[in-house]
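Tip: read the tokens left to right.
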């Protein structure tokens, strides 16, 4: 296979972790595909919601992360149309891979500058899924109307992670658009073995996600008002909306005494796999995920999950690896927490080992790698 140069534009990248899934998606992709291609990433020199420049990074210059990964970190004062155009035009590439839809500097402007190029891929990252329009929906729909009018996506190939997302892209952009489907790749890590894992007393739950409406933080907390058994829930993640977090804190204060919730701040991405192993269940009641890396990583840690039915991970109870519940029924969510707390140690061990086995089957499926390599053909 001919080794190609893949140019990626993305708002935030390693060593940043606060923006969540996209950074993990690209880090995983590069880890798996670095044996086949070279990657050149153009990104900011700060993390999401931060003005602090990354340590050990040279701004406004190419930094070599490893033998196949090079990153250009742009400083805030140099991030403008002229400099970005110059950088894009001076960087040789075989494919350009644009992250997201709505970012001016890293989605819209690169697409416009490179509109005459043929090998342009746009990763929608769930931004065209129906639930994504619950936040700033009018602005997003207006932009998409303008984009269709100017045929912004005329020569573009979209990357969808599943057929549902592909259908959402067609609905928003047009049926004639070219789409390639390739699931996200998992974090590369050594095989783990869960041996006689037992539930804690009280049962320990963990939520790792951005604290925001779309991630369902408040809905998760409110459901716990109806749980009668003891439990501990630790929450990790950046606070996206301070007003929303104040509502969450108020809901926490009104919980019954049998429920303990701790906010543990931001968890560095590299610590996620090991930290997950300290908990009995992973919880994520998001309005939607086009993949959900944290869900897969919970399975990889032998940690059964309680998630919404708005993700690609479905029919979990029939597999005995967790529950995918409706967000419209708070009583069902509370009942699921109760069910998780009350399963026996023997049944919990079965769930835990099934989750680990399921993650291995998914991660080692050779079709995953093949489909991702097909993106750049």
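Filled-in amino acids:
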């Amino acid at each position: 296979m001919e080794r190609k140069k893949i140019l990626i534009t993305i708002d935030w990248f390693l060593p940043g972790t606060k923006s969540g899934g996209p950074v993990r998606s690209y880090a995983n992709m590069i880890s798996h595909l670095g044996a086949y291609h070279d990657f050149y990433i153009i990104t900011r020199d700060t993390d999401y919601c931060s003005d602090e420049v990354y340590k050990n990074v040279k701004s406004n210059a190419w930094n070599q992360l490893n033998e196949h990964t090079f990153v250009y970190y742009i400083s805030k004062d140099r991030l403008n149309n002229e400099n970005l155009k110059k950088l894009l035009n001076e960087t040789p590439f075989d494919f350009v891979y644009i992250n997201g839809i709505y970012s001016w500097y890293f989605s819209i402007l690169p697409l416009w500058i490179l509109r005459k190029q043929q090998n342009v891929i746009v990763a929608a990252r769930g931004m065209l899924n129906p639930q994504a329009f619950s936040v700033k929906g009018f602005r997003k729909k207006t932009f998409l109307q303008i984009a269709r009018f100017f045929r912004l996506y005329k020569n573009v190939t979209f990357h969808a992670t599943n057929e549902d997302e592909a259908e959402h892209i067609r609905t928003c952009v047009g049926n004639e658009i070219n789409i390639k489907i390739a699931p996200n790749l998992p974090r590369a890590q050594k095989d783990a073995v869960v041996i006689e894992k037992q539930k804690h007393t009280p049962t320990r739950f963990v939520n790792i996600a951005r604290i925001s409406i779309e991630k369902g933080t408040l809905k998760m907390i409110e459901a716990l008002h109806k749980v009668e058994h003891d439990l501990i829930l630790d929450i990790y993640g950046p606070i996206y909306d301070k007003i929303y977090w104040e509502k969450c804190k108020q809901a926490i204060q009104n919980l019954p005494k049998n429920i303990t919730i701790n906010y543990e701040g931001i968890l560095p991405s590299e610590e996620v796999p090991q930290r997950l192993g300290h908990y009995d269940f992973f919880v994520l009641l998001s309005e939607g995920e086009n993949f959900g890396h944290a869900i897969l990583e919970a399975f990889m840690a032998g940690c059964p999950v309680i998630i919404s039915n708005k993700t690609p991970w479905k029919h979990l109870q029939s597999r005995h690896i967790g529950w995918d519940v409706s967000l419209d029924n708070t009583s069902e969510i509370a009942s699921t927490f109760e069910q998780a707390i009350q399963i026996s140690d023997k049944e919990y061990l079965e769930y835990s080992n099934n989750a680990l086995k399921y993650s291995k089957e998914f991660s080692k499926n050779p079709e995953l790698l093949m489909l991702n390599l097909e993106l750049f053909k």
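The chain is about 35% helix and 20% strand. The longest strand covers residues 38-44.
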